[in-house]
Amino acid sequence: MACALWVTGCADGATPGAGAGPSTAGPPESGAAVPTPRLLPPTTEASPSGRTTAPGKGRPVRACLGGDLAFEETNWRATERAPDNTPVTVAVDYVVTNRGHDSCAVRGWVSFTLFDACDATCATAAPVDSRTDHLPGPETSVTLQVGATAVFSAIFRHCLLRADHAELRLEGDPTPVQIPAGNLPVCPGAAIGVTPFGTTA
Known about the structure:
Largest sheet: 5 strands, mixed
CATH topology of one domain: Immunoglobulin-like
CATH class of one domain: Mainly Beta
Number of strands: 14
Order of helices and strands: EEEEEEEEEEEEEE
Strand order of the largest sheet: 4-5-10-13-8
Radius of gyration: 17 Å
Organism: Actinokineospora auranticolor
Structural class: mainly beta
Number of helices: 0
Distance between the termini: 14 Å
Helix content: under 10%
Protein name: DUF4232 domain-containing protein
């Protein structure tokens, strides 16, 4: 299933966009080779200093913190398959909504930490040995009004193990955001490819 997801809520007076609802289904039965990340329409202007400004206003906007944002999974799909049609990689889009009290900006790439499901032999879920790779794309600041959304994609190596949960970190904010991840494949040692905010794979 293909989803067109747009970044919304940049210009003053714009109506915040609604994010797509989360999908609980696993990867579909059809897929293509890993695509090049798609750039979504720009919605902010960046100052030479790198600080984000409201379009046409020159007013600085603070960086979003993890606690300002809600993350929803959507649009599961296989991006690469083996000759026997077994998925090799799967992609998931994440719709990010500003749930804070004022406008803020996201920029660059999030980092992922996956946690293995805990069984009767352990007390807590343990982080899995993996890394986050930055997929190519422009590092553009995206300003989110309250209730507005942005999007990015993550590509995971497919395997039969499933994560208990995941932690996401924004650049510049060391505090993790925990999200449910019961459908995400957790493959020790595998890289997780992530597109920058405002693009999808």
